[in-house]
Specification:
This protein has about 375 residues and is an alpha/beta fold. Helix content is about 30%, strand content about 20%. β3, α3 and β4 form a beta-alpha-beta unit. Bound molecules: pyridoxal-5'-phosphate.
Length: about 375
C-alpha cells in the first residue's frame, strides 16, 4: 500500500501517528536528481546503501537514474528485479565468491571493484574474466579535512598496488578502471581534484589506458549550519582534474552519489510522548533514524505540527530524548521549538533521506518503518 497525502499536516490529521513516519517528497527527490544528472558530465550511479527503500529507488528511477552502486547480493537483487533495464555495479572491495558468481550469472553484473590482488583472483575465477568484465581498482586517497567520514580508511590500494592490479586485470583481457571515494559529506571541492591527481600518478605507473573513471560519492547536503559550496564547484574541480589526465575518448566518467540525491527528499514526523521541563521524549532516536546526528554531528531543521490550537510564537531550545531505555539515546544538539510544545504534539524533522532508515535498528522494539508520500514544501524552502 502506498499512502499519499497533500501535505504533512493532512498525514498527521489522518493517521495521528504515535509511531515515526517518513514523509517522502517525490517532487523534491526528482528535482534534486534531475539537477545532478544535468550537471555531472558522465554516468551517475546511485549508492543504494544510502537509502534502499523501494519507494525511494522508484522515485530516483523516475527521475532518470539508470545505474546503481550496489555492495551486496540483496542490493543487486533489489535493483535488478525492480528495474530490469537498469545496471547494478558491484562496488564492494571484499565480496564472497558466491556473491560474485551469482551477481554475474544470475543478475548480469559485469563491473566489479577490487583493491587487492587476491580479490582480483576471486573475481577472475568466478567470472572467467575477459572483455565482458570490467575491473575497477579502488584507490586509497588521503583523509580530507571537512568530510564526515574518511572512507579510504578501510578500503583502497596504494599507488603501486593499484597500478599492478590494473596491469594484471588488463592482461586477463578485462576492461579496467580506477575509483576513489573522498569521504561522505565532503565540504571541500578540491578533494576531488586532489584524488584525480593520484589517479594521474597511477596511470603513469600502470601505462595502461582505462575504460572507466569513477569519482565516487561524497557530494554534500545543506544541513543546519553547513557551509556548503555549490555543486557547480565540485563539478568544475572534477572537470579540470579529468582534463589533465588526457584520458582516451572512450573512457566513461562515473560518480556514485548517495546523500546528495536523497537527503532533502525525506523528512521524519515524530510524536512527543512526554515533556519534562526542557526535555522532550520522542518516538525515534539515535538507534532509529537519527544516528547520524551522533556519528556525523548533523544538525537538522525541525518544526512543530499541532492539530488543535496555535502553538506559542515564543521559541525555546529543547533536548530531544529517543525512545529506548539507553541513556545514550539523546539527540546531541537541541531543537528550537515553540515553548508550549507538549505531549501529543508532532515534530517534523527534515533532511533525513540519507543514512536514516538504512541504519535503523530494532533495539528495544522501536523501529521506524512507515513511509508516506507528501507534496508540500520541505522546511526552509521558500
Ligand atoms: C557510501 C558510498 C557511496 C555514497 O556516498 P555518499 O557520501 O552518500 O555520496 C558511494 N560509493 C561508495 C563506494 C560508498 O561506500
Amino acid at each position: 500500500m502506498e499512502a499519499q497525502f497533500p501535505d504533512v499536516r493532512s498525514m498527521v490529521a489522518a493517521l495521528k501517528p504515535s509511531y515515526p513516519v517518513y514523509c517522502l517528497r517525490p517532487e523534491v527527490l526528482r528535482r534534486t536528481t534531475e539537477r545532478f544528472l544535468e550537471l555531472f558530465p558522465g554516468r551517475v550511479l546511485y549508492a543504494v546503501k544510502c537509502n534502499p527503500h523501494p519507494r525511494v529507488l522508484r522515485a530516483l528511477y523516475e527521475a532518470g537514474i539508470r545505474h546503481f552502486d550496489t555492495a551486496s547480493l540483496p542490493e543487486i537483487a533489489l535493483v535488478r528485479e525492480s528495474f530490469p533495464d537498469a545496471g547494478a555495479y558491484f562496488m564492494h572491495p571484499v565480496k564472497s565468491r558466491a556473491a560474485i558468481h551469482t551477481a554475474e550469472r544470475v543478475y548480469g553484473v559485469d563491473t566489479f571493484i577490487v583493491d587487492h590482488a587476491e580479490e582480483l583472483v576471486k573475481v577472475l575465477d568466478e567470472t572467467g574474466g575477459g572483455e565482458g568484465v570490467t575491473i575497477v581498482v579502488r584507490l586509497k586517497t588521503p583523509p580530507i579535512e571537512g568530510t564526515f567520514y574518511h572512507l579510504a580508511a578501510k578500503f583502497g590500494a596504494d599507488q603501486d598496488d593499484a597500478a599492478a592490479l590494473l596491469r594484471e586485470a588488463r592482461s586477463r583481457g578485462c576492461q579496467v578502471g580506477l575509483a576513489f571515494h573522498v569521504g561522505s559529506q565532503c565540504l571541500v571541492p578540491g578533494a576531488y581534484r586532489q584524488a584525480l591527481g593520484i589517479v594521474g600518478e597511477v596511470l603513469e605507473k600502470a601505462k595502461t589506458p582505462i575504460q572507466v573513471l569513477d569519482v565516487g560519492g561524497g557530494f554534500p547536503v545543506q544541513y543546519v549550519g553547513t557551509n556548503m559550496p555549490p555543486l557547480e564547484d565540485y563539478i568544475a574541480e572534477i572537470e579540470d582534474g579529468v582534463k589533465e589526465l588526457k584520458l582516451r575518448r572512450d573512457c566513461v566518467l562515473m560518480c556514485e552519489p548517495g546523500r546528495a540525491l536523497v537527503a532533502d527528499g525525506v523528512s521524519l514526523v515524530v510524536q512527543v510522548q512526554l515533556r519534562k521541563g526542557d526535555q522532550l521524549y520522542i518516538n525515534d532516536g539515535i538507534y532509529g533514524s537519527l544516528s547520524e546526528m551522533v556519528t556525523a554531528g548533523l544538525k537538522l531543521p525541525a518544526r512543530l505540527v499541532r492539530l488543535k490550537g496555535k502553538p506559542s510564537e515564543q521559541m525555546r531550545a529543547f533536548i530531544l530524548n529517543g525512545p529506548t531505555c539507553d541513556s545514550l539515546d539523546v539527540l546531541p544538539s537541541t531543537f528550537d521549538l515553540p515553548e508550549d510544545v507538549g505531549e501529543g504534539d508532532w515534530i517534523e524533522i527534515d533532511r533525513v533521506g540519507a543514512y536514516s532508515h538504512a541504519l535503523a535498528s530494532r533495539f528495544n522494539g522501536f523501529y521506524p518503518e512507515t513511509l508516506v508520500a507528501v507534496n508540500d514544501k520541505p522546511i526552509g524552502a521558500g
